[in-house]
Specification:
Helices cover 36% and strands 28% of the residues. It is α/β, with parallel strands linked by helices. The N and C termini lie far apart (61 Å). Belongs to the homoserine dehydrogenase family.
Length: 429
Amino acid sequence: METVKIALLGLGTVGTGVYKVLKAQQEEIPHKVGAKIQLKKVLVRNTEKASRKLDDPSILMTEWKSILEDPEISIVVEVMGGIEPARRYILDALHAGKSVVTANKDLLASHGKELMDAAAETKSDLLFEAAVAGGIPIIRPLKECLAGNHISEVMGIVNGTTNFILTKMAEEGMEFQEALALATELGYAEADPTADIEGLDAARKVAILASIAFHSRVTFDDVYTEGITKITATDIRYAREMGRDIKLLGVAKETPEGIEARVQPMLIPSTHPLASVRDSFNAVFVHGDAVDDTMFYGRGAGELPTASAVVGDILDAVRNMVFGCRGRIGCTCYKEIPLKKMEDISCAYFLRMQVENRSGVLANIAGVFGNNCVSIAQIIQKGKKKDRAEIVVITDEVKEKNFQDSLAVISGMSTVKEISSMIRVYGQI
C-alpha cells in the first residue's frame, strides 16, 4: 500500500493536536483513504523544546528548505499561524506541486485569492476546514453538500472567547472586565485578547464564509467590525426583559444591493437557536433556497477539535492523491458582487440613555427620530434617580445612516446626559 509522506509546520497547540490525532488514527487511516500516512518532518523554531512532544524527535527541524526540497513530501500542513512566513511557505509549497492543508484564517482572509490562484495554477489541493469554527464542519458543507443551493445568508457565533464572556455576563451578572478575567484564568482568552474581544477574529472568519457562500471575494478589510467591550450587564438585563439575548454575531448576507459583511454585538430573540449557544461553543446558521435553514454547532477552537478538522483535510488530500484528482475543488469565487456600505445596511436598534427627568424630553427625542425617518417601536423608562431617568428606545428597522444622523443630534441635546449603549438588533422587533 502506498505511503504518503507529509510535513507539519508548527508544533504549538494545534500542531500538537494534529500529531496526537494522526497517531491515534494510524491503524484506521489506510482503510479510510487507501494509503498510509507518514509524518516525515516537523518544522519548529526550537527543537529542544519541541522534542518533548514527539516520540521521534529526529523528525524535528528548523530549516524550511529541507521540507520544500524533499521530493518525498507530498503534503504540507501549516499550523504556524500569522501572515509571514506562513504565506511564503504555502506559496512555495504550492508552486513546488505539493498539496497544502492550513488552519490560518488570518492569511486566508487577507490573501485568499493569491493562495487559491497558486493552487489552481499547479492543480494542487489547498484545504482549510479548520480556519473557521474549529472542529465544526462548515467550509466543506458550503462548497459541496450545499452546492445545490443559492445561499442568501450565513451568520453565527464564531468566536468562543466572546461567547464565554457574554454567557457569564448573562447568567452570573458579571460585568465585562470580570468575565474577561475569568476567561483569561480558564484559558479561553489569550494574554492579549484584542483579536477576540474587538471582533477581529470573527471578522476574518466572516470574510472566508462570505467568499465561499456567495462566490465573490470578501476580505478581512471589507468586514465592518465592532467588539463587545462596551456591553454591560445592564444591557443584557434589559435584553432579557425584552425576550432577547446579546451575542457577538458574524453576519454575511447577499442582498440585491450587494453583500453585507459585519461583526457586531446584537440582540437576538431568545427563541432563536443561536441564543442557546453557551460558553465557548460556536454555531453557524445557514439559509439556502432549497435546504431552508441549517445550523452547524460544536467546539469552535481547542487543540483536538481544531486538529480534527486539520486531519480531516489531510485525509481528503491523501484520498485525492490516491485517486488522481488533486485540485478538484478549488476557488469558487467566480462572481464580482459589490460590497454594501455599512451606512446603507438596515436593522433595528437598541438605544439606552440617561436624560433629564422632566416633561418634554421624550417628545424632543421622538421628534429628532421622526425628522430622520426613524420609527420608534418601543420606549421604556426606568431607574429614576433624582433629576435623571434611564430610557431605552427600540426602533423599527431603519438604515444605519438615518439612525446615526439621529444619534448625532440626540447626543448633543442638553437634556441628554449620556448615551449609555447602542446595540443593533438582529431580525424584526
